[in-house]
Design a protein that fits this description.
The chain is α/β, with parallel strands linked by helices. The protein is built from 19 helices and 14 strands. It has helices at about 20-30, 45-50, 70-80, 95-100, 115-145, 160-170, 190-200, 215-225, 240-245, 260-270, 300-305, 310-315, 330-345, 355-365, 370-385, 395-400, 430-440, 445-455, 460-470, and strands at about 10-15, 35-40, 55-60, 85-90, 105-110, 180, 205-210, 225, 240, 250-255, 275, 285, 290-295, 320. The strands form four sheets. The chain has a five-stranded parallel beta sheet with strand order 2-1-3-4-5, with helices on both faces. Strands 7-10-13-6-14 form a five-stranded parallel beta sheet. Helix 6 runs parallel beside helix 7 (about 190-200) and helix 13 (about 330-345) crosses helix 15. The radius of gyration is 29 Å and the shape is elongated. The protein binds adenosine-5'-triphosphate (ATP). The site of adenosine-5'-triphosphate has 18 residues, from helix 7, helix 13 and helix 15. Keywords: ATP-binding, Nucleotide-binding, Phosphoprotein, Transcription, Transcription regulation.
Length: about 475
């Protein structure tokens, strides 16, 4: 079985004592840090650093030929981007201060508790990962490029904001830290998660678990699995989803609905990197990268005490928010055409021609169900289609079932308040005239669509327009 090495860069241990190199490698590997190389001759260290992508060095001080202090200075000069941690047999304040001044990230005494050294190495790895991600992100934005556009082939969009999301996805895809994907229902979060997994280069599977509606016991059993006889009815041992996702991605959907009890368990899993299958007292290491998604406003849930602060901050380190379709209306014609092709193929029909007014009608609608809703409308329309121009009926019916511009339920931003910054309110008749003119403009002159936007019948609107013209 191939195992994904973590982190993506190597951790180099330099010490002339082979026993220490061996025991430290094992300790770090047990803590989940598997990308380790060792060097027992300090004169070889710089050469190894040019041959391997080294991100962190653990360096002994007392070594023959080339001392740790000398090597530290050479590393700081030739590889300033590499983080060096001193692990010395000497507990000397003066030496420690000197090393820190020469650029060391941290200083530990070998006799110190191993757990502290491991924590220090993990902190250095985390900082290095963030540095690399930031650099990557800066480059991507600077050159506005996508390294792997093919990873996003299923996501149809021409929107700039979505393109920035793709760039962010590429920048964090290799990170082992959790990733939070938010956005209203139906915006395409699952597609983003699939791209994240594809780009992670992880050889394991993408395993998705929808945690909404699972009680604490079900969450534990599903994620952690159980040993045989763990509880009445557990006749056979069962692997948890964490294990199924080994060397892959564990995708926890609807995380905003996770109960407070299960939130504690998830936090512990992310912090310790360990879990216990139910009925077992032997911990297992998680080897999957965790991605979570929710359509809920986690910050609001956190403020209401329904979501733990510590978990929220842990999850938020890498956060991407997929905008609703109403905020990227230029995507509507692209998606319309895409789904039309898919639906026609699925129903074995010729791709229909679109009525001219359809794009206008759809552009006036807010799509509370986002892309999923548009897709359903198109499939419905194509299933009824008899040939020639596509009928608007399925769309008009679907939109009619929902109040137009249902997004009014969303909290209004100042810029969405039509009276924001307006000192003088228009008179009643003037307001109606303004409203009518705006609806006709948005409907590109189509009176039946404009009437729908205003919530009046078409004859009523027509009468009003005639009155305005003095007819
Ligand atoms: N940009 C897009 N291009 C093509 N298809 C899309 C796009 N966005 C969404 N879809 C399609 O719309 C449907 C809903 O997308 P998806 O399941 O990814 O949404 P979601 O945000 O995960 O929703 P939920 O929060 O309800 O789980 C899917 O069939 C998906 O393939």
């Amino acid at each position: 079985m191939t195992t994904t090495l973590y982190p993506s860069f190597s951790i180099l241990l330099v010490d002339d004592e082979p026993d220490w190199l061996y025991s430290m490698s094992i300790t770090l590997e047990r803590a989940g840090l598997t990308n380790i190389i060792t060097c027992a001759d300090s004169r070889e260290a710089l050469k190894m650093m040019t041959e391997h992508a080294v991100g962190v060095v653990l360096l002994d001080l007392t070594m023959p030929h080339l001392s740790g202090e000398e090597l530290l200075e050479r590393i700081a000069e030739e590889h300033p981007e590499v983080t060096v941690i001193i692990v010395s047999g000497l507990n000397q304040l003066e030496t420690a201060v000197h090393c820190m001044r020469s650029g060391a990230f941290d200083y530990y005494v070998k006799t110190a508790e191993e757990g502290r050294i491991v924590k220090g190495v993990k902190r250095a790895v985390r900082e290095k990962e963030l540095q690399l991600e930031n650099r990557e992100l800066r480059n991507r934005f600077l050159y506005d490029r996508l390294e792997h556009p093919e990873a996003f082939r299923d996501i149809v969009t021409g929107d700039k904001g979505m393109r920035s999301i793709f760039q962010y996805v590429e920048a964090v895809a290799l990170s082992s830290q959790p990733i939070l994907v938010t956005g209203e229902s139906g915006v395409g979060k699952e597609l983003i998660v699939a791209a994240l997994h594809r780009l992670s280069g992880r050889k394991g599977e993408l395993v998705a678990v929808n945690v909404a509606g699972l009680d604490d016991a079900m969450v534990s059993d599903t994620l952690f699995g159980h040993v045989k006889g763990a509880y009445t009815g557990a006749g056979e041992a069962r692997k948890g989803m964490i294990e199924q996702a080994a060397d892959g991605t564990l995708f926890l959907d609807e995380i905003g609905d996770l109960s407070l009890g299960s939130q504690v368990k998830l936090l512990r899993l992310l912090q310790e990197g360990e879990y216990y299958p139910i009925g077992s007292d032997r911990p297992r290491r998680i080897r999957a990268r965790v991605v979570v998604a929710t359509h809920q406003d986690l910050a609001a849930r956190q403020a209401a005490g329904q979501f733990r602060n510590d978990l929220y901050y842990r999850l938020r380190a890498h956060h991407l928010h997929v905008p609703p379709l109403r905020k990227r209306k230029d995507d509507i014609p692209l998606l319309l055409d895409h789904f039309l092709g898919l639906a026609a193929r699925e129903f074995g029909k010729k791709k229909p021609t679109l009525p001219k007014e359809l794009a206008v009608l759809l552009s006036t609608y807010d799509f509370p169900g986002n892309v999923r809703e548009l897709k359903a409308m198109v499939y419905d329309a194509v299933s009824l289609h008899q040939g020639g121009v596509l009928s608007m009926e399925a769309f008009v019916r679907a939109i009619g079932e929902r109040p137009v511009q249902a997004a009014a339920e969303q909290p209004a931003e100042p810029s969405e308040n039509p009276f924001f910054g307006v000192d003088r309110l228009p008179g009643f008749t003037e307001a109606i005239d303004l409203l009518v003119a705006e609806a006709v403009r948005r409907a590109e002159g189509n009176q039946s669509i404009a009437a729908r936007l205003l919530g009046v019948s078409q004859p009523t609107l027509s009468k009003r327009l005639k009155q305005q013209r003095g007819e």
